Amino acid sequence: MVSANPARRRPEKAASYDLPLTWSEFGFLGNVSIGTPPQLVTSFVDWTWINQYVFTTTCQGDPERTYDCFAKDQAIFNQSLSSSFRDQSTLYPSRTWNPNHFFFYEDLTVDHASDIETVGSSSARITLQAADQQFDLRDDPYPFAGVYGLSPVFKTDNASTQSPFYQAWSSGAWPEPFVAFHYCYKGSVDVSKSTCKGHDGLQTLGGYNHSLIDGHLLWYDIVFFPEVNNVDFMYEPAVYNYWTLNVTRLSLGDQVQSLNQSTGAGAVLDHASYGRGAPLSINAYKELVSATAATSITLDSPPNNGNQSFYQVDCANVDTFPPIRYQFGGSERVWEIIPSNYVEVVNDTCVLNVRTLGDGDFIVGNFGETFAKDKYIVLDFEKNRVELADLKW
Question: Which residues are marked as active site?
C-alpha cells in the first residue's frame, strides 16, 4: 500500500516518547492533551482507527444538551473551553457510520475540527473527529474520552482520515515515522514490568527502542484486504485502513492448516479487545481442540469476546501442546504463539484462549495481545510496513 509520504522538516527538539499504556477491558488506554489550555483526554489507543476521536459536549447536534447523551461522570473534551479549537465543517463535512465498530448498529457521527494535541513533549495542530453523540449513553460511561487512532495512512487520505500521530509527524513534531509496542503481560519474565516502566505496556511514538530487540527487525509490507470490512470490522461506509499482513502459512506445530483459497488470508494488527485470543480458523480450532484433548466449558467471563465456543484443558499437559505458527508474505520466518501464551487460567481452569472469524478455513484474524506476547512490533507510517522482532526482556 502507498503512504502519503509528505515532505517534512524536523525541529531539533522533536523527540520520541514512551506513551504509558494501561490495560482495560476495551484495550489499552493512554493520556493525551487537547486544546488551549490543555484538557486531559484519556484515549483508547487503537491501531484500527483513522483519526483522533473525542467525546464533546454535543448531543444530537446541540452542544448544550450534553447530559441528554452522557452520564455526569463521563469524561469529555469541552470544545467551548479551548481557545485554539477551530471548526472545519467547510473542509470536511460531518460523517456517519452505521454499522460501525464503536457502537455497532447505533450511529457513529462526527464533525471535523482542528486543535492542538500534545503527547509527551510533542505538540501539533491536527484535524480531529469531534463526536456528535446520537443516542443515550448515560447508563454506560466509558473509562476514556477519546480514541487515539493509529491506522495506516494511504495516498488518497486527507486529514479527516489520518492518524493524529501521522499528522503530527508530517508537521515535524515527531523525529521518525515509527510507532512501536511491547506488552508487559501477566506471566512474562519481566515480573516488575521494568521494560514498560512499571506500566502494562508502552506505545513508543516517533521511534523505537533498539535495546528491546532480540536479533533484528523483519519488515513486512501491508496489503489491501477488503474482506476485513466483511468479516471483521464492519463499517458503512467501509473503512480499509488496517495494518494487514498476508498470511502465507498457518500450522499447529508441524500440522499445516488450510487457508482460504478464494480471498487469501489476512492478519490484522490490533491490540484492542478483538486482538485477545490466538487467531485461528474454525477448522484449525477444531484441530487444536482435538490435539489438546479439550472439553467444552461455559464461562461467565471468557478470555476473549469472540463468538466461538470455549474449551478447557488439563493444566498439567500445557507444555505438550503444539505451538501455533504463522508465516507472513515477505519472509519465511515463523512466528509462534507458544502454548503457555494461548492457554488462559480462568477461575482456576485452563482454557484455550482462541478467537475465530469467518467459516471453515482461515480468512482473517486479529493479531493483538496474545500474538504480541514476547514480541516487539513496529508500525512504519512512512513506508506502510510492519516490523516484527523477538522481544529482549
Answer: 46, 270
